[in-house]
Amino acid sequence: MAGKYEKTEQIYEGKAKKLYTIREYKNLLLQEFKDDATAFNAQKKGTILNKGIINCELTNYIFTYLNKKGVKTHLVKQISPTEMVIKRLKIIPIEVVTRNIAAGSLLKKTNLKEGQELSKPIVEFYYKDDSLGDPLINDSHALAMKLASEKEIETLKKAARKINKILKPFFLKRGLKLVDFKLEFGKDKNGKIILGDEITPDTCRLWDAETNEKLDKDRFRFELGNVNEAYAEVRKRITGN
Amino acid sequence: MAGKYEKTEQIYEGKAKKLYTIREYKNLLLQEFKDDATAFNAQKKGTILNKGIINCELTNYIFTYLNKKGVKTHLVKQISPTEMVIKRLKIIPIEVVTRNIAAGSLLKKTNLKEGQELSKPIVEFYYKDDSLGDPLINDSHALAMKLASEKEIETLKKAARKINKILKPFFLKRGLKLVDFKLEFGKDKNGKIILGDEITPDTCRLWDAETNEKLDKDRFRFELGNVNEAYAEVRKRITGN
C-alpha cells in the first residue's frame, strides 16, 4: 500500500496531525495522526498513549459512516494504523462547534450550567488563528474578514446541524452522549465544501450515557486521570477494537 | 415641570445613569445622566466634566431625530439638564453593537486593522452580564438562554442596521465618523421592541472626519487626554451648545 501512496514532502505539522503530499496524486494528501496532545492554545502539552492509532481509526470509522449517510468528507482510505489518504482541501479558517449539552467555554459566556441540555443545538464559529487564540466570531465577522460568503456560512451551519443529527444517535447507541464537537470544512478542487480534519475524543466532548463520566480530551485538559483509558474505551465502544 | 413628573423611588443605578419611578405614571420612568465614567468592566473609574448634561442633551437630540426618521425610542421628553422621562421598558439583556470601521475589541478577534473600513457593517450581540464581563454571543446562544426569540433577534439586527443607516450620515454632516456604537432595546407595555438607553460619546466611537481624532470615551479609557474637551466638542457639533 505504501507503494501506491508514497508520501513525499511534509507540508504541515499541527498539534495532533501532520500532512504530507503524495507522489503522483496532486489532489490527495496523507494525514498522519500523532500521540501528541495540547490544550489551552498549546500552553499545556503532553502525549496520550496510542492516540494516533485510536484517532485515525475513529476518524476512518466515523467519516465512513457519515459518507454512507450522505455527508461528503475528505476521507479516501486508511492506509496504516496512523495514516489516511485524504482529498486535498482549501481549509476554511473557521472551526464550527456544535453543542447539545452545556460544557466547556460555553459556561463562560452564558448563564447555562454544565450538563444542561440545550433545547436546540448551539452552533458557533471560531476564527482559526493561533495568535488571536481562536476567538469566537459571528457571521458578520466571517463576512468582514472574507473567510466565507453568506451562502457558504449557511452551508457550514446546515452541515454542522446535519452531522449532529447523524452523530448524536450514533454515539448514544454506543453508550456515549455527544456533548459538543468541533468540525473543520474545506473546499475541494471543484470548490465544493466538504468535511475535513477529524472526529475523535480530541474534537468531541463525549460523556458516558449512564454516569456522565467524561471520556474525551477534558481528562487531559483538566488532569482528571485515566486519559489513555478513556480514549481506549471510546475506541472499544465505536470500533470494537 | 418637576411637579408634573415627580420622581419617587430609585430603582436602578448603573455606571452612567440612574432610573427612578415617577408618581402617577406607572409606564414611565425618569432617566438621570451622571458625570461618572467607568471602563473595562468598571475596573477603571472617574468622572467627566458635564458628561451628565452633555449626554442627556445628546440623547434627547438624537432620539428625537431618530423618531422623526421612523425609529421608535423610549424618549418621552427631557425635563431638566440631566433628566429625561422615558417609557418603561423590559430591557432585552443584549447589547447590540454595530461597526462601520474596525476599532476596539474587534481588533482582538479578527485580523482587521484599526481604521479599516468594513465593506458591510458588522453587527454583534453582547450578553449583558457583569459577572461574565458582557461576553460576545451569537444568535444561537441568545436563543438557548431565551434572551430573545428568533424573530426578535432578526428585529434587533434590522433595527441596528436601520439606525446605522440614519446615524452614519447624521454624524458625517457634523464632521464625525460613526466608527461603532452600542444600542439597547426593550419591550414596551404592548410587547413592541423599541430603542432604549442612550446614544452618546459613552456608547459611540466618534472620530473627527478629517483628522480621525478620537472624540469619545476612548479618550477616557486609554488616557488620551482632553476627555472633557472631546465631549464638549461633540456636543457643540451636534446641538450647537
Quick structural gist:
The structure is a homodimer of 241-residue chains. The first copy, chain A, is of the alpha+beta class and 241 residues long.
- In the CATH scheme, the class of the largest domain in chain A would be Alpha Beta
Cα distance spanning the termini of chain A: 22 Å
Uncertain regions spanning at least 5 consecutive residues of chain A = none
Spatial extent as radius of gyration of chain A: 17 Å
- Which structural class do you get from the secondary structure elements of chain A? alpha+beta
Task: Count helical runs of chain A.
Answer: 6
Oligomeric form? homodimer
Most residues in contact, chain pair and counts: A-B, 27 and 27 residues
Task: Report mean pLDDT of chain A, rounded to a whole number.
Answer: 96
Question: How large is the share of residues in beta strands of chain A?
Answer: 35-45%
